[in-house]
Amino acid sequence: MRTVLIVLFDDVQSLDVTGPLEVFAGAEAWHGGSYRVLTASPDGVPVRTSSALTLVPDHALDDAPAPHTLLVPGGRGTRHPDRRLTDWLRGHGPRAERLVSVCTGAVLLAEAGLLDGHRATTHWAYCDKLARDHPAVEVDPDPIFVRDGRVSTSAGVTSGIDLALALVEEDLGRETALAIARHLVVFLRRPGNQAQFSAQLAAQTARREPLREVQQWITEHPDDDLSVESLAARARLSPRHFARAFRSETGTTPGRYVERVRLEQARRLLEDTGDGVEEISRACGYGTPEAMRRAFVKALGSAPAEYRRRFRPASTS
């Protein structure tokens, strides 16, 4: 049986705690004898979450049993961390077989020196600060979770559920993880490499309706003519005016936005369907497999076929 110890502190984000907790508790219910899930706070006294929910821990940190998996949630309480908590993590973190953080829990691990030399992520709003304050940590702002050896870190809030499901799948197999996901009514597989934002969320939504309509058109028709001239005509603007207005209102150029949408759609089709690379390249507007291959190598460092081998489950048909 693996002991999962979840650290609690005042102003913790409640979903950072309860999301992974429900996953591991569900695994224990489904596959008895697999996990013992415990919580602990510095003094063993109840803590008040950032949403005013009170959580009652099982133990004080100093009295908690040695964990197999030590999970550190995030929340407002990480902005000015309790020195007792970071000191405890510094002393006990190296003994855990698996270190896991959710959201800004990565900040606490970094403060304790446990992320030095590791690749890690956190909530998108705090990635720059984490990188600035802890230069020994290789911060990747894009994925929803990152696994680097015994250290696993996840982005904001619900991504902790995705990471917990990935850990359960590793420990107990895909069928158990799938059963838990079904029970929680969540997707089993949002792979860790998935971006924290979709292309539509990564860019700002344009203020003017014609530009918003163009953004939606691009998303729904990645295989269409998405040249600046064609998109400008759809927005009833000159190409020069359109390109300038689109960048001003969305924070990115039309071409870059189109690239993100096409790449995102191609990744989804590679992960979720058995369609061939040539068929996907046409459906996503690349035209040829070679054009799609160049886009994947440039953005992801791997060709489409290799990407599919890495991120598409063998059971997908």
UniProtKB/TrEMBL annotation:
Keyword Transcription regulation among UniProt keywords: yes
Protein name: GlxA family transcriptional regulator
Keyword annotations of the record: Transcription, Transcription regulation
Domain (HTH araC/xylS-type) ranges: 212-310
Source superkingdom: Bacteria
Keyword Transcription carried by entry: yes
UniProt cross-references to InterPro entries, sorted A to Z: Class_I_gatase-like, DJ-1/PfpI, Homeodomain-like_sf, HTH_AraC, INH-QAR
Family annotation (Pfam families): DJ-1_PfpI, HTH_18
Species: Streptomyces siamensis
